[in-house]
Amino acid sequence: MLVLGLISCIVLRALSAQAKVVHSFEECKEFLYQGKEPSGMDQNAEKICQKLQNRGFYYASLYSVRHKIPLYSAYTLDPKCSSDNRRTDDWHLEPQISQPGSPIDYMVPDNSDNQNLYKGNQAISSDYSHTGYDRGHLNPNSFQCSDGRTATFTLTNAAPMIRRFNQRHWKRCESTLRSYLIQKLVMDGGSATAFIVTGTVPDPNVRIPEDRKKVTVPSHIWTAVCYKHHTDDSKSLSFGYIGRNQQEEPDIRLMSVSDLNDELRSHFGTQQSIEIFADDCFSDNNKLVEVQGVFQKLINLPVIQADQISSGLQDTYGAVKRTFSSDSTPEKRVKVNENTGKMSFNSMITYYSLAEKLNAFARIVCLITYTKPLGRKFVHDELRKREISTGQMLLNASWSQRSRRLQLMAHSAQASQNLIIAVNATQVVKSSPAAPLPAFTRTISTATGVTQTRS
């Protein structure tokens, strides 16, 4: 029995004795696109394959002992984690960072006993106390499930982030990214992998806590995404974004991975090139516009590649910005509750079909403003009044009522297809501001459309 017990102990130890601090990421390369780590970062930083005791690996981190923060964490997103909302705030330390010869190759609790043992080469929770900085995750716990969520709560996966930046600005980026990637992964039926790298730009002039100046505060936080489809490269894409680690105006910008590489090299002040993903991961697929539409809608991220935005959108954005800054109207007290664009159709059948789709998928209501037969130079005043009245009546009716009336209008127009039909496509955004907004009405015209802003 004694021999069997000894053999069991040896086998268990062999199963768990996988390196935590490693010379290369070979043991956890599944979290890296093409198995290749980002290049051009601090070559003296420690490589960590993150794991729990008697568990497998969950992600990879590059940790700077000099700055006491990670330079990046590389991870993937499993769409099955979308329903896992469990969270633990039990933080951990990595023994092998402070004691390279330690046989303990897994995370240990960040308690008072372990803090005294391992505080030499890494940050501990007390370094963050009363500083105004959060222990901000690089690999977000919300991107993992079950034990993987626990594994994200290590100080080697956290950096000092201004509380408002972490809990508002960056959190919105994480939530938007998670929703976007889960939707794509589900639509592709598991035939793709989302490789993600989130990192820091250490600012050597800012350290916490005030009395010890131990942990470097990053000036910027960044994320790069490589979405690799397993069988159809036309569905693969990559993008990145970066923001300033500050309370207000973090200037979070969406960009290509190539541009992010260049920006990081500028921030790091190095002549060595930086490459987050091998060959920038399908950056030539030019899918940034697709990503920009999702991110700008949800978190209002600006895009630095202006050539990927249509000239009409640029004109509209510039006009709105100039109008808001031309007087004393506080920008934060402005709400946009109506966005109007003009379209024309050559038949009522076409109009009715598109009107149904717009309402079903985007909750946009199209109002007929006028119709006229082709070849005629005027529209009778009474007819036009009647048509505008019909449009207003449709707006006030329920969609089922509007649908029925549009059908009747479409059928009545079947015998006369040669019509020009102009409509206003209106989308109303409901909002309940905490304070009353200033009363104003503006109409901003561009070459491509009209935007109406009303309170």
UniProtKB/TrEMBL annotation:
Keywords: Signal
Annotated ranges, domain DNA/RNA non-specific endonuclease/pyrophosphatase/phosphodiesterase: 55-263
Domain ENPP1-3/EXOG-like endonuclease/phosphodiesterase: 56-267
Signal peptide, first to last residue: 1-19
Pfam families: Endonuclease_NS (PF01223)
One GO MF term attached to the UniProt entry: metal ion binding
Coiled coil: none
Name of the featured protein: Endonuclease domain-containing 1 protein-like
Record organism: Onychostoma macrolepis
